[in-house]
Hints:
176 residues; alpha+beta; four-stranded antiparallel β-sheet; 5 helices; 45% helix; elongated
Amino acid sequence: MTRNGVPLPPTVYPLAKGRVWAMLAGSLVFVALGIVFLVAHSTVTMTVAGALVVPFFGFCSVSIVQRLLRHGRPELVLDDAGVDHARLGRFGWDEIAAVRIREQRVRNTSQRFIELVLHDPDAYLARAPKLVRSTASMNARLGFGPANMTTNTLPVPPEAILDAMRRHHPALVVEH
């Protein structure tokens, strides 16, 4: 969108490093617990738990470290052409049918994220990063599309992101 013929400057959101460091610490605690289960306990249940926990949270830890090492690359950039997310990639506004804030609840915790509802999800998946492609079928079974931005790595609440999206693209449909 332009104001008086001048394009809006991009809206840039850096990685919320404090939150990401806390996520890394939590993942490493689970890796350590898994190692304890593998080494110190002789029950089959504890051994299986350790064998599942260590690789899963080890992978999470490596993924988190990679995010921290991106050397200042923004987590999210919104501009008049579209959305550029560090994990999901680039989307033109014409690819996005709507956006909505979603929440996934698991027992006593929940995570909020912004879902980009795409006109052609298959076209996006053809170019999407490998991690997105590998989680797409699980997301579909849960009733979500493939383009979901977690908000725990962003420095502002999801409502602020949607407001910024509407500033850059006033015709954007926001579903509730």
